[in-house]
Amino acid sequence: MERQHTENLFRRYKGQLVNVKTISAGIYKGRVGEITNDYVALTDRDGDDETQTFLFFHAIESIVVIGTPTAP
Predict the structure, then answer these.
(1) Count of Cβ atoms closer than 10 Å to residue 56 Cβ
(2) Which residue in 17, 20, 34, 69 has a CA-CA distance of 20 to 30 Å to 53?
(3) CA-based angle 47:32:39, to the nearest 5?
């Protein structure tokens, strides 16, 4: 994906839960947080700790949005 398209995609789903698969076959799960022109931050709010994972756009292979409401 081109960076601008990837950035726009993450902006559309900001705050929602996503699974992101990277080119190195890593799978990351979290809520879309901070978005820049180079990376996205996923936050995991389990318990008292808020873990952040930063993913560079050029390393992303696919994105799956979890629990998006469907139109009637």
Answers:
(1) 13
(2) 69
(3) 120
